[in-house]
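Pilot study result, target chain (591 residues):
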Amino acid sequence: MKSLLRLLPYLKRYKKTLALGFFAIVVSNVFWLVTPFIVGKSVDTLKSNFDSGKLFQYGALVTGSMLLSGYFSYLTRQTIIVISRKIEFDLRNDFISHIQKLPLQHFQNTPTGDLMSYATNDLNAIRNVLGPGIMYTSDTITGFLMIISMMLSLDWKLTMFTLIPLPLISFAVYALGKKVHHLFDEVQEHYSKLTTRVQESLSGIRVVRGFVREEYEKNLFNKMSWEYLEKNMKLARVQSWMWPLMFMLTGISIVIVILFGGKNVIAGTMSLGTMTQFIMYLGMLIWPMIAFGWVVNIFQRGAASMMRFCKVLDTVPGIRNEELGMKNEENKLRLANYELRFEGSIEFRNVSFTHNNKTESVLKNINLKIEKGTTLAIVGRTGCGKTTLVNQIPRLYDVNEGEILIDGNNVKEIPLEILRRNIAVVPQETFLFSSTVKKNITFGVDGSSMEEVVRVAEISRIAKDVEDFPNKYETLVGERGITLSGGQKQRTSIARALMTNPKILILDDALSAVDTHTEEEILQGLKTFMKERTSIIISHRISTVKDADMIIVLDDGEIAEQGTHDELILLEGIYAELNEKQMLEKELEAI
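Predicted structure:
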């Protein structure tokens, strides 16, 4: 339950509205409790002397009290339930804002389905705590205390007898609630796995169909769904005991009232109206007891969900702005003006990097200078650290040892927003949003003109393809760009990067699905566009990198070779071997 204390700062934002809701609960209960008092008086009046006028008055009073109780009950819901919806809105925004700051490692270690479950299923359980949970807890406590007070004022001895079963109710609720908490946690965990499986199946639908695995996926999903159903049924069976126990134990109290209260009426020590009033209060007491069990269930579920939710919120962003540089006004001014002086020269000084939970270094003692306005090409075998190296520049990962400088400034001292706004990365795995071609190209900028969109589309050589689309730039690309070919997706991603007008452009094997002729056209266009700006190209193709100002060859996380195309050919090393293989492949294809 401690995890729910994290909600207090959110509740404080709406403390005035919350106070109004609590006030409405008290007033609603007052008018609700007036009814048995009026009914009791009317029974005694009718017994002593039948008067239709008084009967009408009592009826009007009961109607009035119930209407007022209903109005304040409505006001309660309009305050507390609305607050729960607003806090749900705040929590969801905070959650999305926080995960945007988390390092890449977090997403590599956390299934997407889990994150989706946190933001939907778990958040809904948390909202139930803030809405029905708080409302019914307040209503239950207030109603219980008022009812007990009224019952004690009528007959304290009879009240004591009727309260005997209540500790049993509390014990039953505690025992069942503990079991519910454990089972609900299991249900939520399995729901996350189920969501992840659905997301993966839909995202990889081409692979599933390509390998004719539809039947396998269907059977696997059926198995997981059946397991989810079994866990839910187990939870439902435990929960189903709670309500019958409540009714049974409160029923014992009613039997006690009838037995002992009836004797008092016969003996003349209690009027029939008082006994009627007492039974009505006891009937009203059933709701707080039942609500108590329900509320415990809500809080148990909410606590389990909040613990899962907080696992993400408590994950500290591994990459954030350094406090250094924010210590005085002079530094603040320097940082504010930094973007104006961002030119794009890059230097790696003794850089080493190791992924979390791994002992072997991915990068080892990298020393490299990239002058402003030059093009650096990186080649090497699969898994040698090429992508990891370029990911250090926009701080998608932070170096473990050494430092990276841009224009002589450590990247950790440059505000992330400025750093990443001036660097555009086209990753290996192209990702397009389920939107139009235009919206995908303009994703990184605001207020762009159609002329700018067409310009970058022409440089990336996607413009001709777009002209053949049914709605041109307003054509929907489908889920993850499924309606486009691999080459079209890569070229759209390049156009998106160019749209930001970066000082540093990084192409991470971003031309692998493009034919050599189109590749040559794109590279020529980039050469003009990126004039006097820095470009970094990762590729397995020699044809892609041969015209770069400098080429480095990575091998096992180290720079094995460095120089121009001609210089590396003369070295007769890894690069020359790769070039020879590709030349031979071309000759074989030509035969």
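One observation from the pilot: The chain has two domains: 2-313, 343-422+550-591. A full batch analysis is planned for the follow-on phase.
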